[in-house]
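With this grant's support, we have settled on a layout for protein records. A representative record follows, to show the layout.
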Amino acid sequence: MKKVSFNLVTLVLIILNTGNLVQANDLNKSKQSMLFKVCRSKDANEIFYNVKTTSEGKLDLSEPIHIYWIKCDKKGKSEPLTKIQKKLAYGLRYNNITPDSAEFQFVSFPQKTLQLRKNNTGNYCVYTNVEGKEVELEQVFIQFDGGTFLMPKIAKVELRAKNHKSNDLVVEIIQP
């Protein structure tokens, strides 16, 4: 009887570890398709923007960019944006979507146009212009300075990008 329960415990551990491997593989897949992320000064939670493609490698025309939270205060749990967050803060408004590219803006900052398309190595990236030069967006940082839940006061927004010709880091500071 002891041998059977040892085997059962071993089987359960193998199944649990296999589940963890699948989650780790899913996380690696997410990192591979990550376009950029939004970090905020108010907490360690991050918002990720991942490219969503078809099996043929073309953009998903219904949702070319998948947006979700990684809640560090909840042990790294992934959560979708709420409807309010999509509509007022972190959501995207698409101007044009084709199977190979998408032009969009943040709903909260329509003054800046961004473009999703493949780079020279065939990976999807997000591009925008900073001081007349095309750059690849890597991160957005939002510095909060009080306010309320529905009307936060934003001190500044930093767009952190890479000049894809020189590989130099470019930071654009936007002060609302």
Remarks:
- The mean pLDDT is 84.
